[in-house]
Amino acid sequence: MDVKQINQKLTWIFKEEKKRIVFWYDGEKEFEESLSSIHAGDATLLRLDEIGALDLKIQIEAQGNNSKYLLYAPWYEPEPEKDWLFDIKLYSYTFHADKASILMGELGLENQSLRPFIKARKAFFKNQDRLDRLKKWIALDDREDDIDLKMITVLARAEQPDPFAILMKILESFCKSGSFIPDEESKPWKDIETLGLATSFWTFMAKTFGCVIESSQALSDLLIKIFVTDFSNQYKKDLPLSLEHFRLTGSSKTMNASVFISQWQTHTIHCKNFNRVSKCFAQKLNMDEILAPLQIEDLVDVMTFENVERRIISSFRDQIINDTEKEFSVIQDAVKKRLDGYWTNATFDGDMKDNLYKTAYQALITSINLLELRKKYDAGFSYKSAVDMFNAYTGELFCFDQYYRHFNELADTTEQAGWDILKQLRLSVEECYSNWFMDKLSLCWGDFLESDQGLLQHWHLPNIRNQYNFFKDKIKSDYVKSDRKRIFVIISDALRYEAGKEITDRINGKYRLKAQIEPMLGILPSYTALGMACLLPYKTLSFKEGSATPLIDGKPTGSFEQRAAILERYEGTAVKASDLSAMSKDKGREFVKPHKVIYIYHDQIDAVGDKAVSEDKTFEAVRTAIDELTALVGFIINSLNGTHVMITADHGFIYQDKKPDNLNKSMLEIESQGIVKKHKRFLMGKDLGTSDKVFSGNTRQTAHTDTDMTFWLPKGTNRFNFVGGAKFFHGGAMLQEIVIPLVTVSEMKGIHKEKSQISKVGVSVLGSMKKIVTNIPRFEFIQTDAVSNRMKPRMLKISLRDGNELISSEETITFDSSSSSMDDRKKSVKLPLKSVPFDNKKEYALVLRNAEDETEYERLPLMIDIAFANDF
């Protein structure tokens, strides 16, 4: 303020505020020499250093209520208990003209002793934007260190005045280029240094983490200590000597390193910066070499460095490969813990769409499932009858195929990303599946196919529906007779049983939908044209003269238009799945309205797998098929008013990732004039005869044809040739080829609909902890429901909070047990507390939040009463 502004302000106070007495404290004596120029209307100017307090009181009272006084004091405003004029001040006005006092007024600070501090920070207040942003943080009773912290918060643009939040935001400024570069210029850090707040910053860091940094590389030194200390807090043994000297010691604050790391990792914005900083210091510390000799069981809790994840995955991979006889429960438990950890749920820079750590762990679990299943059947397969073996396959043995497919999907994902960590495990899985399971299965099943009484001579099994009876048994008898029902039949080319089972489980996890699967005994040879034909309504099924092209009642069935024409006789039609899915709701309803039976033809698996150029993508095609078929069912029921949908296939398939050699090829010498169709899995013709090198049969028995057509099939998984691809094949009599899924989907009504609600498992805290008395409290939880199709897993973020402010680490736990045992559904978590003073009379909370959307699942009140700080 200049003299003119002071005069205007004082005049306004006396006139507009109607004050009779104004105190003016000028501790810096900035205006002492200008007093002669001060004019405040008719007010009398008195200097408090020239008149005693008692004389002043007498003079003011003697003059009466009409006199006005400006009382100037060349000192700071005294504390009330030391102020002889405090009683007068209670009905007067206190005026400050110095910049510091004006700023204090703007900030709402009443403690006048802060004026020297505010003046010392005058460079900060030269910027109005900084001042405005500081105002929202300032509290009435703030002291110097409180204000410094909030000034640093403003400069860093942190979310709140907290050392953790400030440090995260400052580090963000060193990651602008996509990686952490400590030497990169940082505007927030430059402002902190330029405005004289660096010393305060390091004081706050020392108070927070219990360390004093005294070097030119202070920020890097602090970070390396924080990272190593967090590693130490989670590592179960003594630190390697190469890290020991970086660990924070001798202070109760050292656990703050782990609380800070945890909060940094779980921060939705700053977590990517954590990845960058962690990577930088992992390289600086040479963590790969440090981790190499460490025991994996000592590392399972460590989430500090990405390198730990790779070390654990590679170690578990080697254990699975080399210790196939041991129990894998320890690995499974550790993997579940890692799947809840930071790195398997992190989002990375670049093109990595999938989290490869999560993918690799899931592959490990899948490989263990496969190997454990093998142990169960280590002696091989032995069944009394073909139907027993057929039922064994549809009951459990199909899981070999499913685990194998799932593992290869996951391994493909990692390899396509350029990561070959699963390469050796892939060989072990291939050995188990192709060289053990498929060989054992083919030998056992082959015994039921041959001989005069073998299955090939009377192609039916007790209580198992033959595929060629599908329309007669499932469509004509149940739906065509009714005017109220419309049936949708989806036929997916090469959809094998295990994929049908996965679709069934997927649909049963949806509201108001119910799916059931039953196996059908497919036709032989198991190829598309014949499989598609036998699913249609017919009186006679035969072959075009001199070929293997099927005819229904003398009419061709090769195209879906030809199949639609056959279905018209039964008030039906045919359509491609892609065409139906592309229709709007109204157009779709108009299309299906005239028909009782709609056959929908879907071709994804066979279209990809049966070509040499794309057969490596077979399992990717199966995944796509499962997704498309599930979505198609939803479209039919939700948009087309369908109430009954069936999903089936023309045949299954076999896929083996290993490349076949001549041992997988059946060499035959046969006259060619009788052959009408050559295929890598069968030969068809008239009067082919028999050979002990092959399975032989007649479609009159295996496909219910009205004409004779003999065929030869190679035994086991052998092929006659490798044309059109060598890994994907069908047409033979292996269970994967001839067990046909029939999935029936219906819409649930009434009470059944209500029971189909999709929920997540419940979780409760065990015990009744009302008070925390230790710095690292432990909580135990129980999953109150077992996971099932309609009861989904629940992932919770668990933390201790003051209101919504984190005061501990935040840990993620997935409750996904399907066990019926309550003991198997218990999980525990440790939540290290932030090392700050806690009010033992204040209510804090244990907070459980749903991980996917941060909604609060439960909040349990508790007290914190820690008598003294531990050194952990």
Can you give a write-up of this model?
- It contains 32 helices and 31 strands.
- It is elongated.
- It has five domains: 3-97, no CATH class; 145-304, no CATH class; 305-428, no CATH class; 465-656 and 739-754, Alkaline Phosphatase, subunit A, CATH 3.40.720; 759-864, Immunoglobulin-like, CATH 2.60.40.
- Helix 18 (329-339) packs antiparallel against helix 19, helix 19 (356-376) runs antiparallel to helix 20 (386-416) and helix 20 packs antiparallel against helix 21.
- Mean pLDDT is 90; it is low at 868-872.
- The two termini are 55 Å apart.
- The longest helix is centred in the middle third of the chain and has 31 residues, at 386-416.
- Helices cover 40% and strands 16% of the residues.
- The strands form eight sheets. It has a seven-stranded mixed sheet with strand order 5-7-20-13-6-12-11, with helices on both faces. Strands 23, 26, 27, 28, 30 and 31 form a six-stranded mixed sheet that branches.
- Strand 26 and strand 27 form a beta hairpin.
- The protein has 872 residues and is of the alpha/beta class.
